[in-house]
Amino acid sequence: MRFFSQRRHFKDLSEQEVLALAIASEEDDAQIYRTYAEHLRAEFPDSAAIFEGMAAEEDAHRQRLIEMHRRRFGETIPLIRREHVAGFYARRPFWLMKNLSLERIRSEAHAMEKEAERFYLLATKSTSDAGTRKLLGDLAAAEAGHQHRAGTLEEKHLADDARAEEYDSAHRQFVLTWVQPGLAGLMDGSVSTLAPIFATAFATQDTWTTFLVGLAASVGAGISMGFTEAASDDGQLSGRGSPVKRGISAGVMTTVGGLGHALPYLIPHFWTATITAMVVVFVELWAIAWIQNRYMETPFLRAAFQVVVGGALVFAAGAIIGGG
Fold first, then answer.
1. Fewest beta carbons less than 10 Å away: which of 22, 112, 285, 310?
2. Are 186 and 309 in a shared domain?
3. Is the pLDDT reported for residue 270 higher than 60?
C-alpha cells in the first residue's frame, strides 16, 4: 500500500529551484532525443536527424537557463530533478525506449514537448523578474514549436495511419487519469489483502469472520489508496487529470480487488468458499496482467509472471500464518 508522497509540490519551489529544475529537465530531454535518434538512425535516418536537431535545441535551452541562473543566483545550481517534485511529468526509463516503434516514439516526443510547454507556462507565474519571465515564456513557445516537428514524423513515415492526433491525446489522458491509478489500486487491493483474508480463513475456518476481515481490509485499503492518489499529484504539472477522478479510480479498484476474493466467504461451507476465492484470485491476477499488457505495453508473459508469483507468495504467507 502506498504512503503519502514526501516530494515537494511545484508551488512550494523558489525561483532558483524552478530554474534548477528546468535546467535538469532540459538535460534529460536532450539525452532522450539522442537515444531516439540512435534507435532510428539505421532505418529512418531523416527522423534521426530531426531528433538530433531537437536535442541540440534542448542543449541551447539549457545553456540559456544556466546563464539566467548565473546572472541571478550565482554559479551553484541546486540539485533538484523531476523525481523530487510531486506531479512532475515522468519520462520512460532507457530500457523501455529501446523497442518503441517510430509511431510510438513520435507520440512520446509530442507528449514530452506538450508537458514541457505546460511546465514553462506555469513557471512564468512563479517569477517576478522580467528577464526570467521572458526567457521562460520564450522556452514555452519553443517547446510548442517542437510539438509540430514531432508531429511531422507521422506525416512523413506513417501517412496511412488513420488515428487522429485528437484520439491519441484523448487515449493518453484516459490512461493517465483512469487506467494507471486504477491498475495500481487493483494490484494493491488484489495482492495486499490476500494475506489477511486467507490467514483469517485458515486460522478460524469461519466464513463469516473471514468475510468481515476481507470487507474491512478492502474498504480500508480503498480509502487509503484513494486519498493517497488524490493527494500525491494535483495534475497541473503532470497533465494526469483531476486528482478527484484519479483518487476515485484508485480507491474503487483497490476495494474491488480485495472484495473479489472476500465475497466468496459469504458461502457458509468453508472449503467451497475457499476454493471459489482461489479461483477468483487467479482471475484477478490474470486480469491485472492483461491490463498491463494492453495499456502499459508490458509483455504479457512478464506481467503474468510478476503478478502470479507475487500473488502466490502473499497467498502462501497468509495460509502459513493462518495454518500455524
1. 310
2. yes
3. yes
